[in-house]
Amino acid sequence: MPPAVADLDLRDRTVVITGAFGALGAVVSQSARAAGAAVAAVGRAPAAKVPPFGPGIVAFGGIDLAKPDETAAGFQSIADRLGSIDALVNIAGAFRFEKIVGGGIDAWDQMYELNLRTTVNATRSALPFILKRSAIHGAGRIVNIGAAAAVHASSGMGPYTASKAGVARFTEALSAELKDSGITANALLPSIIDTAPNRADMPKADFSRWVKPEQLADLIVYLLSSRSGAITGALIPVTGRV
């Protein structure tokens, strides 16, 4: 098991978290801050409509990560305001259930855009800043959120799992590309995450078997820390008891 968050030190690091206004993103933002990081919480909704995160976490809203130019401008604003970018956690994404028979191509395009395209755009926009900082301290970090279901898709999961499989392959390619830079790139592959929307969608499920956001956050903070330097290109299943 990774060390407790309190045992990890992210002081003097600036971490950007996409999808930070959602259930998992909010918990990861708080965990990274508890470990000492300055946190840029990125979301598509206007920041003015998001409840304050508290000291040390700055909300950057209204950024559509599916648009390369808008994403690049948003990350430049983050670097200008917080001084640097040392690490990136790509959580932004969505789920859509649709079968191939009777379904359309729109679901495939939507899942690609919201799950893979956002991850690629955010990473490309963050990398110039992370590379600059990594040249100084040699500890740049990128953590992506994939999906355990992408390893083997079931009925109705084609568009979603295809996009998340893309996140896995992207992570592997990115890791190989960055091996000489001191930057690590890894992905977590969770099963069902215990969030209010998932409970509402599956009210008869045994929630105790699902993965809690705090459990994912602990592992993410570990992967952001200097202790994880030997881990890169990993696709880590976090499946609870599903």
Written account of the structure:
It contains six helices and seven strands. The mean pLDDT is about 95. α3 (about 105-135) runs parallel beside α4 (about 160-175). The longest helix is centred in the middle third of the chain and has 32 residues, at about 105-135. It has helices at about 25-35, 70-80, 105-135, 160-175, 195-200, 215-225; strands at about 15-20, 40, 55-60, 85-90, 140-145, 185-190, 235-240. By secondary structure, the chain is of the alpha/beta class. The chain has a single domain (about 5-240), classed as 3-Layer(aba) Sandwich (Rossmann fold), CATH 3.40.50. The protein starts with 13 loop residues before the first strand and ends with a strand. It has a seven-stranded parallel β-sheet, sandwiched between helices. It is globular and about 50 Å long.
CATH class call? Alpha Beta
What quaternary form is this? single chain
Gyration radius, to the nearest Å?
17 Å
Round the mean pLDDT to the nearest integer and report it.
Answer: 95
Distance, first to last CA: 19 Å
